[in-house]
Specification:
With 200 residues, the protein is α/β, with parallel strands linked by helices. It is built from 6 helices and 8 strands. The protein has a 6-stranded mixed beta sheet. Strand 7, helix 4 and strand 8 form a beta-alpha-beta unit. Helix 5 packs parallel to helix 6.
Length: 200
C-alpha cells in the first residue's frame, strides 16, 4: 500500500454568468514512494481570480507575468487541463496499490470527481478509490487520544523546503504538508499503541 497525498485548488469560472462552474486552478500530489506532481491549469481565469482570490496563497503562488498581470503560459508548471488529467491518471496508475489521502477526504473526492468528470465508479482511473481518507480527521482523532500524554499536536508540521528558489507552489506545498503530518501521526499512533506495554 502506497499513500498518495493530494491537494486540488479550484476557482469559479464565471465566463457564462448563467452557469458558473468550478475549474481546476492547481494540483499538487506527493507519495510515500517519493514521487511528486505539480501542475497549474492554463485555463485559469486571471481577471476573475484577481477580483476574488488575489490575496490567497494559492493565487500568489501562481506563475504570473506582470503588466498586464496574466498567467505565464511559458512556465514549465503550466499545462492544458487535459494534460493535467492524464498526469493525474498516470500518477495513480504508476503507484503500487495507491491509498489516497487529502485534507478533507470525502469532500475533496467530490471535488476531484467533479473536476475530472468521474461521474460513476465505472469511469474511475486505475487506482482511484471509492473514497479518499481525511488527514484532518485522523489527526484530530489522534490529538484527542494523546491530549493527556503530550502537549505537542499533529497540526505542527515541519517547514517544507522552497521549490524553484523563493517561489512556493501552494498546492504542492500543501500536499507535502499532508505527508509530513501523516508521518507524524504514524509516530503518535505507534507511541499510543506501545503505551500500555510501557506501563506494564
Amino acid at each position: 500500500m502506497t499513500r498518495v497525498y493530494i491537494e486540488a485548488k479550484t476557482f469559479t469560472d464565471t465566463e457564462d454568468p448563467s452557469r458558473p462552474r468550478r475549474k481546476l486552478l492547481s494540483l499538487g500530489m506527493a507519495s510515500d514512494d517519493g514521487r511528486t506532481l505539480y501542475a497549474v491549469n492554463d485555463e485559469a481565469a486571471i481577471c476573475a481570480l484577481l477580483i476574488a482570490e488575489a490575496n490567497t496563497p494559492a493565487f500568489q503562488a501562481l506563475p504570473l507575468k506582470q503588466d498586464p498581470v496574466d498567467l505565464d503560459l511559458s512556465d514549465p508548471d503550466v499545462f492544458p487541463f487535459e494534460e493535467i488529467h492524464d498526469m493525474f491518471r498516470k500518477f495513480l496508475a504508476d503507484t503500487e496499490d495507491p491509498e489516497l489521502w487529502s485534507r478533507e477526504g470525502q469532500r475533496d473526492q467530490h471535488v476531484i470527481r467533479e473536476l475530472f468528470g468521474y461521474y460513476t465508479e465505472a469511469m474511475y482511473p486505475p487506482g482511484f478509490p471509492a473514497w479518499i481518507a481525511s488527514v484532518s480527521e485522523r489527526c484530530a482523532r489522534l490529538n484527542a487520544a494523546s491530549a493527556e500524554r503530550s502537549p505537542r499536536t499533529l497540526d505542527q508540521a515541519p517547514p517544507i523546503p522552497e521549490r524553484h528558489g523563493a517561489r512556493r507552489h501552494h498546492a504542492f506545498v500543501n500536499a507535502h504538508d499532508l505527508m509530513k503530518r501523516m508521518h507524524r501521526a504514524d509516530e503518535v499512533e505507534q507511541s499510543l499503541a506501545n503505551a500500555p506495554e510501557a506501563a506494564a
